[in-house]
Write a structure and sequence with these properties.
CATH superfamily: Spore Coat Polysaccharide Biosynthesis Protein SpsA, Chain A
Distance between the termini: 24 Å
CATH class: Alpha Beta
Strand content: 15-25%
Order of helices and strands: EHEHEHEHEEHEHHEEH
Number of domains: 1
Helix content: 25-40%
Length: about 240
């Protein structure tokens, strides 16, 4: 199964080259054919240029998409999906929190029959390392809201690390891509999807600042409200 790895970025110059090298190593050792699509929202730190420079040394194709301004993580993911060609799409961060070495297991779950494979912090065997108390409370609250509002059985419906079959993302009503929790919208608007959770340990970023702020919290509330108005129910 050929894969497209979508990396939405903003000010990730310090970590992105290392993630690209880890991706190449993990995919190469597993014999997985893949492409990488970096979608950068005009990072002032030169993230796009760093991606292009790192790509010259890698044995896998890397496309860098530059958007004119900061338009949100979920919309960047959708742009990456449109620009990619793989049968499977993997979405992950490039700050080091999501281990590229988990990707073969996510893709293996799709090959085993799943439509969506979620890198799960809250499935047995998963966890979080290095988060302050406030971040833990916010994540716990967002997860509880999502599961209760939509009847979701998925333990980590707001994960930013997942793989999905392309036809699942493109079928049905177009995704709106509000805020930064694109997985929740996918789960709620694709209620017949078969979902598997693959546990992993989320490691808090060592460099840079988290993108989670009041604006993203507001957008998450907006997303939940819109999905409720649609009468959405999860798988």
């Amino acid at each position: 199964m050929r894969a497209s790895i979508v990396l939405p970025t903003y000010n990730e110059r310090d970590t992105l080259p290392g993630i690209l090298r880890r991706l190449a190593a993990a995919l190469g050792s597993a014999g997985i054919g893949a492409e990488v699509v970096v979608v950068d929202d005009s990072s002032p730190d030169g993230t796009a240029e760093a991606a292009l420079e790192a790509a010259r040394e890698l044995p896998l194709p890397v496309t860098v998409v530059r958007r004119p301004g900061k338009a949100g993580l979920a919309s960047a993911v959708l742009e990456g999906v449109r620009r990619s060609q793989g049968e499977a799409v993997v979405v992950m961060d490039s700050d080091g929190s999501h281990p590229p070495e988990l990707i073969p297991r996510l893709l293996g779950a799709l090959e085993g029959g799943a439509d969506i494979a979620v890198g799960s912090r809250y499935a047995p065997g998963g966890g979080v390392r290095g988060w302050p108390l406030l971040r833990r409370v916010l994540s716990w609250g967002a997860t509880r809201i999502a599961r209760a509002a939509f009847g979701l059985g998925v333990r980590d419906p707001v994960s930013g690390f997942f793989a999905a079959r392309r036809e699942v993302l493109s079928a049905g009503r177009p995704l709106e891509g509000i805020g930064y929790k694109i997985l929740l919208e996918v789960l709620v608007t694709r209620p017949r999807a078969q979902v598997v959770e693959v546990p992993y340990v989320f490691v808090n970023r060592a460099r840079g600042r988290s993108k989670l702020g009041t604006g993203e919290i507001y957008n998450y509330v907006r997303l939940v409200g819109r999905l409720l108005r649609r009468g959405g129910r999860g798988p």
